[in-house]
Design goal:
elongated; mainly alpha; 2 strands; G_patch_dom; 354 residues; 12 helices; two-stranded antiparallel ribbon
Amino acid sequence: MSSEDEDDYMNMVIEEPTQKETFTQKKRRELREAEARGRVPSKAERAAQEAARREEALATSTLNPTNKGFQMMAKLGFKPGGVLGKPAAASDSDTNSFLKARAEPLNLTLKENRGGIGLDTEKKRKLREEAEEAVKRIKHEEGSYRDRVREERELKRIEAQVRAAQKVAERLDEESESGATNDDKEQGTGSSAKSNKESGDSTDPSHSRDGPETPTKKKPIKLASHVNVLYRGLIRERERNDSDRQTRHALQSSLPSSFFPKARLPEYDDPTMDREDKKALGSELDQNTSTLEIELEEDDDELDAFNALEPAERLHKLVLFLREKYRYCFWCKYAYEADLELEGCPGLTEEDHD
């Protein structure tokens, strides 16, 4: 026996013995197949299967030799890879697009809704316009927020300037009134001294020191209704704060404490207490207190009309008042002695003094 006839055990393929299907296994397999064939697919499964078959068909070229249309075209001389119609000239710049457009049949575009032909384009246009409007709205809101914050800060700054101008006007009015009062007192003192000297009365300092002291009259409180409307709101606010503070003090003093174990109401009048004790404890109410309370409860139409103005307009009125009456420039923070010097002021507004 030659070597070629010898068996090559290294390359020999030994087939595994197949196990024969038993009768029970066959019955179970057939039962599973019958159940799978008899199962009715759901609507979603049918739609998925249809979509898969559609995509597979659209992805397959229609130039298939088994296609009847292709067979008819082949009988007329059409060859695979060729184009229908007259080929474009070599000088034509759109040759490639022409060949591509004719080398394959027109693709099928499935329409799944009942909209018109141009509906998709219209929807895209509307969506694009809505997106642009949303972007513009966001930018406008950002800009309006910044403008609103800037305006609020500017209003607060002008309100602070109005309050400062009101304080200056109040101070200058008080100085003017106190100066006029002092001048009247000096004139009255000089005339009385002159009359005493002419009559020959003795002015012994010991007599005034040993004699009974003459009670000094309290300075009457000026009602807010008699104050200039330009800074009347500042006075009323101060009076309201003082009234609230007095009310809180009266309430706290009415509560029991270590100094006053027995609680008493603010209106309680203890006959055993002297006038000085009542004044020290705050139980003696001033006559002007009730007057101020009544005044705070009343409405002031003139003040309401002034507060209804814009802060810039109120500030302008205050600046004019200070310049015309006291030759005081609110922006220069200086009181000029003459009108000629006031003409050297840059102007009436804050921008003129920058």
